[in-house]
Amino acid sequence: MDFSDPAALHHVLATVWFLIIGLFLVFYVMLDGFDLGVGVLSLFVGDRRRKVMMSSLGSIWDANETWLVVIGGTLFGAFPLVYGTVLQGLYIPIMLMLLGFMLRGVSFEFHELSERKSFWGAMFGVGSLLAAVAQGFALGGLLNGVKVVNGEFAGGVWDWLSPFSAIVVLGVASGYSMLGSAYLIIKTTGEMQDGFYRRGQWLAWLMLAVAGVVTVVTPLHYPAIFKRWFSTPDIYYFATLPALSILSFFMLLRALKRQYELAPFVWTMMIFLFSFAGLAATWFPYIVPGYVTIDAGGADSSTLVFMLIGIGMLIPVMITYNVYQYIVFRGKIDPDAEHLY
């Protein structure tokens, strides 16, 4: 490729930023995904177990959400057209997501200090569920099509609400809950841990069922994707990722049945990773599916280079901090201990 050609250089830089934002999104889903999943699962347990579940997140939940802030900032800088148009089409689910995050944060503080622990424990679960549902609708709305004409949002305020996005919501909620179960298997013991092994098995099947529906509906809804998936030789490449996801699913079931502690979390993360890779490969070079390509939506090359230098220094710091905090706060949660967060 001739990098002396400004268009070719811009395409390379836009592709790099597409991959970087995708990497940030994977980090966010894997980390804050189990965080939200724990909150959703807390709606179905008693006060004593809910306190243990909240305590398992007390030192890490706010750092997990940092990746979402980074995604917003980098999207604004690297793809300002996308930031401006997509947010217009997804204002309602995004505002609901932020409301869920605020409710979760308040619930952590009030649950510890208030005498109404049952109420604030329940609000923690409600806030987690609201954030997960809102993210599902945002993703479903994006995949369903955020209409952009001449660089401006041309859709309606309720375009994100559709039967397809409702299916995606179920997939996001079940996937996050599966991550939450896998995380709590690592953090708990005894009868409580056994319960999450059982929950993990039916959540894994639910996650697979929803993924299957989305996989079937997507090419039927978008003829261009159908052609891309099933044309030769692309079909061989696109078949690899679903095959790896299915393999990871059966390895997950095997780990749950044999009651391994770390393996369920690893295999669940692999399912998410392969699914996101398939999603990115399906839509590339579009960053707003069907409407805006990375070349059209990207900032100018000098901005992309400048941001790349800054992010290049930031990424190692953030990853190091995340790894360090998990090392410091590793180990099991004592259900009888007094927890402060």
Q: Strand arrangement, largest sheet?
A: 1-2
What ranges have pLDDT less than 50 throughout 5 or more consecutive residues? none
The structural class is mainly alpha
**Mean pLDDT score:** 83
Strand content: under 5%
CATH-defined architecture: Up-down Bundle
As for the CATH topology, it is Formate dehydrogenase/DMSO reductase fold
Shape: globular
Query: What is the number of strand segments?
Result: 4
How many helices?
A: 14
Give a short account of the largest sheet: 2 strands, antiparallel
Helical percentage: over 70%
- The first-level CATH class is given as Mainly Alpha
Rg from C-alpha positions?
21 Å
The structural domain count equals 1
> In sequence order, what are the helices and strands, one letter per element?
HHHHHHHEEHHHHHEEHH
Distance between the termini: 53 Å
Ordered list of secondary-structure elements with their pairings:
Layout: H1 6-41, H2 47-55, H3 61-64, H4 66-78, H5 80-89, H6 91-113, H7 117-145, E1 148-149, E2 152-153, H8 163-187, H9 190-221, H10 223-230, H11 234-257, H12 263-283, E3 286-288, E4 292-293, H13 294-297, H14 301-328
Antiparallel strand pairs: 1-2, 3-4
Helix pairs in contact: 1-4, 1-7, 1-8, 1-12, 1-14, 2-7, 4-5, 6-7, 7-8, 8-9, 8-12, 9-10, 9-11, 11-12
